[in-house]
Amino acid sequence: MEKPTPSQPDKENQKEPSALEKIWVAISIPLVAVLVAMLFGAIIIASNGIDPIRAYSSLFRGAFGDMVAFGRTLEKATPLLFSGLAVSFAFKAGLFNIGAQGQLLFGGITAAAIGFGVHGLPTIIHLPLALLGGALAGALYGIIPGILKTSTGAHEVITTIMLNYIAINMTDYLADGPWKDTSASNIVARTPQILDTAVIPRLAQLPLGFFLAVGIAILVWWVLEKSTLGFEIRTAGLNPRAARYSGIKVARIIVLTMVLSGFLAGMGGAVETMGVIGRYQPGFNLGLGFEGITVALLGKTHPIGNIFAAILIGALKAGSSLMQRVGVDPEITSVLQALMLFFVAADVLIRRFIHVRAVESAPNLSSHWGDTK
Amino acid sequence: MNNETRARLLAFLKKRRIGLILGAILVVAIAWSYNNNPIVTQAVLASALRHSTPIVLGALCGLICERSGIVNIGIEGNMLMAAFTAFLISAFVGNLVLAVLIGVLTGMIMGLLLAFMSVTLKVDQIIGGTVINILALGITGFFYQQGLAGGGKLPIIPLGPLADIPLLGRVLFTNPPITYSALILVFLLHFMLFHTRWGLRTRSVGEHPRAADTVGINVFVTRYMNVIIAGGIAGLAGAFLSIESVGSFERAMTNGRGFVALAVMIFGKWTPLGAWGAALLFGLTSAIQTQIQFGGITIPHQFVGMLPYIITIVVLAGFVGRSRPPAAEGVPYEKEG
Lengths: 373, 337
Fold this sequence. Notes:
A: two-stranded antiparallel sheet, B: two-stranded antiparallel ribbon, globular
């Protein structure tokens, strides 16, 4: 039975495009998608009786107005970049890791536990220990859907979502039970404050965690594009059968990809705990994993594209508090995100209006999802 | 009994052994428990049926889509959106029948959106479904006003003398309308899928769209129509959540039911009756979970809370390899030429 082959740029008939053209091809669709989404957002804001230009200008000031605002934008962007990278990384192997949320929660609470529970270490050891501990917790949680998929064929979209709910319950339990802050002043479910030696510092107003995230993004790009592992991952994603014939152990790649994806998400949770919240508190990290999906797709699952997408979504979140003062519910940011996601996913719509070539072939996530072995 | 019927009976027993064994255990357990404590048994079973209602409706939505070749992971968002609009109508208009209709209509519109993305735009269907989920979370979150009072819940309608049958009457025939309609839909869709022209067309479009196309079935129209109908069913599930079950709306109140529904659909091997059985099993665990929470057994509530999700994973891992999804699902259909 014929299967539609992914559309690929016709290499023989076309000259190698210039670097600038390549970049334009890569960013034009997301850019237009963002603009169209903002336009729709403006209509929604206007329908609530508020001047959209005023709303957007306060959004902009709240996100980039001064150093404090910009620092807040980067702070919001940091976990999003991690979870975006986690989703993008898995996507390259043809896996849709909706479980970044759960992996991030475990990363966050593990970093908190190491942060408050391990005493007497200097910063130079304590900080990386907590960070890696969080990342490893995420990696361990990521291994579950990987193994379930390769050994039983259970699709990761369902298993990771179920694991998200399990993670929410589990971390709630830990923060309300064994790891609860038992000091007299505390009445809510949360862990104690982490020690100063595990806190990720700020540089002037800017959170250092963001620069760590950018470094990791570049590393991820290198692994995917330049290393053998990256080649195997991409091959397994685009055509598992061909990958198998060429001797790539696809099952191993799937598990490994999920582990690394979980590692990235877990590190995102750890950085959020250690750089922003200072402890683990249930509910504080919710949504970060899902927003990672938006970041990944807006960034066209390219690690560098993820950086800009994360800053954009971070700016929306940072600026929404100032926008609230002119009367716009901060939830508008999730509507905007959803609209952006829609227009990026439905890029065919945009291609009708601006002429851009299809860039690259992407793995088909949904064919035969019931029995992918 | 001649040899042929015996062989067929044996084959049937073998094929359905898991369902039959589970069913037998269940019947014995219910009888034993009813003998010991009729009131609690009745309450647990009735609550199991109601817990299973949104899940079986979601699973029906999923399986109509997948039988015609479209993967729908947007059921969650579809339900949430419908729960929201149904609630709004009940709050502002006060007419619950209209609220249900609007919920169903909302579901159909969301179905149309998915069909547009996956059939016309050929967006990857998993991504299309995710867009719907995130869109629904965003829109309902933005327009939801805290503290808005709903217009009440759909009433329980006892079905005359049937409701007086011991146990069965209370469990099956003393329910609110959407729970009844879910029961009817299960049997209706099972019949339609396997014994009508529509069902044959739907299945052929999901299994081999090119062949279906050659014999004159319009693949695009069939897929559009089915995804929209299925959306309406998920919309009914949404209306169940907001105006039949609790009578109010909360942010993200679907709580993963749309995804549990997908697992149930797979567990039920893409058949309405199978999905119903699987959904009842989930309903029963939820009901027992509630019973545990009220029964004063001291397990941290979080562990009880994660039970349905763990069971979903176990079920999925245990059964997915043994069931075969429609062959052409997830692949956009392109006409040749």
